[in-house]
Amino acid sequence: MGQRSKSKGWCGWFIVLVVAALVAVVIVISIRKKSDHSDKAAPVPGPPGAIEKKYSDALKLAMQFFDIQKSGKLENNKISWRGNSALQDGSEAKLDLSKGMYDAGDHIKFGFPMAFTATVLSWAILEYGDQMDVVDQLEPAQDSLKWITDYLINAHPSENVLYIQVGDPEADHKCWERPENMKEKRPLTQVNTSAPGTDVAAETAAAMASASLVFKTSDSSYSDTLLKHAKQLFNFADKYRGSYSVSIPEVQKYYNSTGYGDELLWAASWLYHATGDQAYLKYTVQNGKAFANWGSPTWFSWDNKLAGTQVLLSRVSFFGGKGISNSENSGLQMYRKTAEAVMCGLLPKSPTATISRTDSGLIWVSEWNALQHPVASAFLAVLYSDYMLSSRTAKLSCDGDSYKPSDLRNFAISQVKYVLGENPMKMSYLVGYGDKYPQYVHHRGASIPADATTGCSDGFKWLKSEDPNPNVAIGALVGGPFQNESFVDSRNNSMQGEPSTYNGAVIVGLLSSLVTTSSVVQSFT
């Protein structure tokens, strides 16, 4: 009896010790978890620091794709297989529309995605120009931007007229030829008061307003010109409301717009940054209920600018602005709250994380041009992370869980790592980067030897050729993988293998943000 009691006593003490140890472990874990998500803000980064070589190398490649896409009389051409093209574009309206860029692997100038390309490229320069500069990519970025805005200026010959397309897509797609050899007619398409295009006009206004900030110091006269056009186009877009997809049904097959409210808010936001005029900020607040879709996260793309607008206006909330009224501040908080919902959706461990991902963690929304959404999302995430860091905002709350700026940056890095080769295919989707990348990019100029003489239809033998492209479309970000993370490297596979300038703009923005670390400016002016 006594022996059993003694043994029972030791057993009791052992249980007490085990429980105490478990309590101690729980306390330690809680303390560590609390310290990981403490309210203490991380230090604000200083001037650009050490260079991340892999991102620097990738950025230098990505920047070259804009040179590949240029139309017109090329200046200081660095692409050996490209030459002058489309020199007569615009002549039927006595305009010089020879510049600008072909949108993808064909030879049409679509104004809607081209303007978006310019807006995003401007945004990247404004936020990360100092980081571009340390790897000698600021000047190339500015040159590519100006190549587009020169075209956009000429495409806007009067206040309420904007030429939004050069070329006939149906005729163009019946040809497979180098742009230098085009002989087909290049008709012009415009929006005006009787055929309005609020979406495309407002996006062009956003492009010009943002670009005016880029050139404000280096070329004030050019900046003023851009801003004048931006204001006129915004007024035109707002006064004569209507989607260009309704006015010109033919565009629905290529770059169909799903609405124009997002572009109006996007343009007004950029005009506020460019002018400091409170009327534009007031516009975003007053029209927010109708167009902003507050509280509902969306995907940033050439068609939908809401997530971009929310992040851009969050910038004002983070860093403040002059003379902002209480009602305007309340509206800004709604934009910021929605931007936070976007961020929480991107963070993979967040309670509200989106399920729109591949098994390897790539954001995946659409089988056509799948990489646009993850790269654009990663760009927004790193912007928001840098806003938090530079404003000494310690954390982001997602349904009660806290996340740091570094969590957003790590998400962005996960997406770019996937793009650059850390994926099941072990393939870089940025052409020219790494040892393995697409060899059969869906791109007319890249697929045809520079010394080949072809007409409209006989060039299709190069589309059908089983040989890899003779010219490498350096820096092209192709469409990307299917949801099962497979990729078919075939020239006929435009769904996965066709690059675009708007993909180029978001990857340039993302890579520029990761090339090194530095604080973002509190004001663009």
Describe the overall structure:
The chain is mostly helical. It has 20 helices and five strands. The chain has helices spanning 2-36, 53-68, 111-134, 138-154, 169-172, 198-214, 220-239, 244-247, 252-255, 261-275, 278-286, 288-291, 306-319, 326-346, 372-390, 405-419, 444-447, 460-464, 494-497, 501-514; strands spanning 109-110, 162-166, 188-191, 396-398, 401-403. The protein has a three-stranded antiparallel sheet with strand order 1-2-3. Strands 4-5 form a two-stranded antiparallel ribbon. Strand 4 and strand 5 form a beta hairpin. The model is unreliable at 1-20 and 23-37 (pLDDT under 50).
Strand content: under 5%
| Cα distance spanning the termini | 88 Å
Specify the number of helices.
Answer: 20
Number of strands: 5
State the shape.
globular
Q: Spell the H/E element sequence.
A: HHEHHEHEHHHHHHHHHHEEHHHHH
How are the strands of the largest sheet arranged?
1-2-3
Based on the model shown, name its key terms:
disordered N terminus, globular, 20 helices, three-stranded antiparallel beta sheet, 50% helix, 525 residues, mainly alpha, two-stranded antiparallel ribbon
Can you describe this structure in just a few lines?
With 525 residues, the chain is mainly alpha-helical.
How are the secondary structure elements laid out?
Layout: H1 2-36, H2 53-68, E1 109-110, H3 111-134, H4 138-154, E2 162-166, H5 169-172, E3 188-191, H6 198-214, H7 220-239, H8 244-247, H9 252-255, H10 261-275, H11 278-286, H12 288-291, H13 306-319, H14 326-346, H15 372-390, E4 396-398, E5 401-403, H16 405-419, H17 444-447, H18 460-464, H19 494-497, H20 501-514
Antiparallel strand pairs: 1-2, 2-3, 4-5
